[in-house]
Each structure stands twice: as structure tokens, then as C-alpha cells.
Specification:
The protein is an alpha+beta fold. The protein has one domain. The protein has helices spanning 2-13, 23-28, 80-86, 91-98, 194-205, and strands at 42-47, 53-58, 63-69, 102-109, 112-120, 128-138, 143-153, 160-163, 168-173. It has an eight-stranded antiparallel barrel. The protein is globular, with a radius of gyration of 17 Å.
């Protein structure tokens, strides 16, 4: 019950969510799905020394999501797979997953994953987080170990912290990961190429914004 109340309260607060981020966020994010000649598909899980569980999910279209932990579903007799399945239909869980989790994209070079993730804060706080991380792929893709985690202040170029503590995630399952429907894909600043953005909007919504940018305002994002 506490989990449901927490989710509902957070959703109400996030009605003030700031869609247009600071300039630094817009400069850093350059999602281009065609650059991923190699992609991942799966749910990766980490359990720290305190027993706290966290997840990283990778989609084959080059998007990824983090910030998911057992507090999302531990009081509802649900696991990560149940959460993802229910999030397809349940409006509360869908909003929690597609809008409020930490979304971004990744690229792969040889045996290293590079992720670029953003977490937009409440509009009243006027604050955004940027996370850039790298991971070493091992055991045939069944394990990834963090190399470096970097937090970047979205407003100050010289304000950042770097963490090199090793955190290991293990592949625990696969899921329907062909493509995500994250709210980020509906933001033009997230994409590297405007044409890719326009094509996505038309494919997903049927609206052609090539010559009518105002039409974008009428589209309801997740």
C-alpha cells in the first residue's frame, strides 16, 4: 500500500516536470540509433553489500534505462518482469517506468559500453542530473562491470564528480526490448539528427512534423 501511495504522490509532483532541459543537457545528448552496429538486449541486476537491488535495462534500439530498484514493486508481490509487463497496461506503472525512470542511450565500442543518461528533476527545483558511465562487457555479455561513473552538473561545466568503484551487473533475463517508448524520444534535443527524430514521431504517432513543427505540441508523450 505504501508503494502505491508513494507512486501516486510522485506522479502528482511530476506534473510539474520540466521538459526543456538546460543547454548543457541538450549539447551532451546525441542519440543516433544507426550508430549501434552492436547492441544489447536484456535486464542486468546488481545487489550491493546492503542487499539493495538495482537494474539496468538495454534495448536493441540503443536506448537504456536505470534508476529502477525493488522499491518499485517489492510490496506488491511483483518482480522486475512482472513490473515491465504490468507497465504496458497499468497507467500508473507505465508513467513511473517511461517518464520517471532514468533514461538515456548507449553505444558500444569493442567490449565497452558507454551510457548517457538524464534524470530531469521537478520544475520547481529547476534541476537536472546527467550521468555518463562506462562498463566492461564480460562472460559473453552475461556480465558488465562499471569502469567509471560520472555525474555532471547540468548548469556548471566545471562541476562534476567521478566514481571509479567497481559495480557488477549480471544478466538475469531478456524481455521485449526491440525498441523503447521513452519520453526522451519525443524531445528533439535528445536526437543527433533531426530527420531521425521526425521519422520516429511519424512512425509512432502518424503525425508528420517535417513542415509543421507546431503539430508536435499536440502529441501526448508518455
Amino acid at each position: 500500500m505504501k508503494t502505491i501511495l508513494y507512486i501516486l504522490l510522485t506522479i502528482i509532483l511530476y506534473s510539474c516536470y520540466a521538459v526543456r532541459p538546460p543547454r548543457r543537457v541538450q549539447q551532451i545528448f546525441n542519440y543516433a540509433p544507426e550508430i549501434n552496429s552492436t547492441s544489447l538486449c536484456g535486464i542486468y541486476k546488481n545487489i550491493d553489500h546492503n542487499g539493495w537491488t538495482s537494474y539496468l535495462l538495454f534495448y536493441s534500439d540503443g536506448t537504456c534505462v536505470g534508476g529502477i530498484n525493488d522499491s518499485y514493486f517489492d510490496n506488491d508481490s511483483m518482480d522486475i518482469n512482472g513490473f515491465l509487463k504490468n507497465a504496458e497496461e497499468d497507467s500508473v506503472l507505465k508513467h513511473l517506468f517511461l517518464r520517471m525512470s532514468n533514461w538515456g542511450y548507449y553505444t558500444i565500442s569493442n567490449d565497452t559500453i558507454f551510457t548517457h543518461i538524464v534524470r530531469g528533476r521537478l520544475k520547481v527545483n529547476a534541476y537536472w542530473d546527467i550521468f555518463e558511465s562506462s562498463y566492461k562487457i564480460s562472460h559473453g555479455g552475461n556480465q558488465i562491470e562499471s569502469i567509471q561513473f560520472k555525474w555532471i552538473d547540468a548548469f556548471k561545466d566545471d562541476n562534476f564528480t567521478i566514481d571509479t568503484n567497481k559495480v557488477t551487473y549480471h544478466l538475469v533475463d531478456i524481455f521485449n526490448c526491440k525498441e523503447s517508448n521513452t519520453w526522451l524520444k519525443y524531445q528533439d534535443w535528445f536526437w543527433k539528427n533531426e530527420m531521425d527524430f521526425n521519422d520516429w514521431i511519424k512512425y509512432k504517432t502518424g503525425v508528420d512534423i517535417t513542415n509543421e513543427k507546431k503539430a508536435l505540441k499536440k502529441i501526448k508523450t508518455p
